[in-house]
Amino acid sequence: MIRNWLASALGNARRRRTRPVRVYLDGCFDLMHYGHANALRQPRPAPQAKASGDELVVGLINDAEMIRFEKPPVMNEEERHTLVDAVKWVDEILTDVPYDLNPEFIQDLFTKHRIDYIIHGDDPCRLPDGSDAYAHARRLGRFREITHTQGVSAADIVERMLHCYDVNRFIKDGEPHPQGPGSPTCADTQTILSKFPQRKHLPTSRRLVQFSNGRVAPGGARIVYIDGAFDCFHPGHVKILKAAKAQGDFLLVGIHTDEEVQARRGPHLPIMNLHERSLSVLSCKYVDEVIIGAPCVMTDDLMTTFNISTVVRGSTSETSCLGPVEEERYAVPRAAGVYRELH
């Protein structure tokens, strides 16, 4: 009922206007994850963020405001800006916005920035005095709610990291790595893993379609391939994906399985499971398509099936310290002369 009314109201607003309908969504966006991306995406048919308007303007709350009203963010403002700017549904970012949407700032949004509606999740956002941070926007009839993504948050990710620390306590000084020579039995590994049960995101075909561009590489396109774990998507991932995309016309990203990541990093990783990591990578504007569960060692079949023109790798990566193992992973593209290392 509400969704039908919102769609009708926005449709009428578009017909009355010659300019785009602009919506505003603010936040800290700390430890940027697929839940944040889900709030910023344009889903069909649910009215999430950009689907409520033609242009999405994001307000990035700075470090000082977060410390004043809530808690210090894990990532600083520059890092958080890099991550928000990389989300493919974001049209514009406003910095130094207040945590509390006071009447003066809201008026500035409506006049200076031509905002039509203020958007926020259906989870409560309270000021220190207990009042609703969006109360004034609600009274003006210019506030719209979106659905909060359950099962993931910055606090949840930090908790997962702390559980990983607990697991590492099983590794005493001088003992071998859990997945190295002399590693524990499968039963021992499962005992360790049972110490920190992770929430398991269960993907649906609809969610994958919503996050996907739906793009197909045109004939003759130079397809660039990069692979990895891409765990806890961060500014370094954004920078290497941007550099990779610059090497061709279409960027294909291979996401390794949880089992593959555990084999080289230990049973306590990855922090985010395969599908959570895939959604984070898919939300990046430099990425055209992902292979969910890509093989770690590249083969002729993989190169041919996806018509890969160039394979790239960062000069410093999670496996660059493994020497011969790293050489083996990219032996096929190296032999074909299509391997390139990016700084």
UniProtKB/TrEMBL annotation:
<dbReference type="Pfam" id="PF01467">
    <property type="entry name" value="CTP_transf_like"/>
</dbReference>
<feature type="domain" description="Cytidyltransferase-like">
    <location>
        <begin position="24"/>
        <end position="160"/>
    </location>
</feature>
<dbReference type="GO" id="GO:0005737">
    <property type="term" value="C:cytoplasm"/>
</dbReference>
<dbReference type="GO" id="GO:0006646">
    <property type="term" value="P:phosphatidylethanolamine biosynthetic process"/>
</dbReference>
<feature type="domain" description="Cytidyltransferase-like">
    <location>
        <begin position="225"/>
        <end position="320"/>
    </location>
</feature>
<keyword id="KW-0443">Lipid metabolism</keyword>
<keyword id="KW-1208">Phospholipid metabolism</keyword>
<comment type="pathway">
    <text>Phospholipid metabolism; phosphatidylethanolamine biosynthesis; phosphatidylethanolamine from ethanolamine: step 2/3.</text>
</comment>
<comment type="pathway">
    <text>Lipid metabolism.</text>
</comment>
<protein>
    <recommendedName>
        <fullName>ethanolamine-phosphate cytidylyltransferase</fullName>
        <ecNumber>2.7.7.14</ecNumber>
    </recommendedName>
</protein>
<keyword id="KW-0548">Nucleotidyltransferase</keyword>
<dbReference type="GO" id="GO:0004306">
    <property type="term" value="F:ethanolamine-phosphate cytidylyltransferase activity"/>
</dbReference>
<keyword id="KW-0444">Lipid biosynthesis</keyword>
<keyword id="KW-0594">Phospholipid biosynthesis</keyword>
<comment type="similarity">
    <text>Belongs to the cytidylyltransferase family.</text>
</comment>
<dbReference type="InterPro" id="IPR014729">
    <property type="entry name" value="Rossmann-like_a/b/a_fold"/>
</dbReference>
<keyword id="KW-0808">Transferase</keyword>
<dbReference type="InterPro" id="IPR044608">
    <property type="entry name" value="Ect1/PCYT2"/>
</dbReference>
<dbReference type="InterPro" id="IPR004821">
    <property type="entry name" value="Cyt_trans-like"/>
</dbReference>
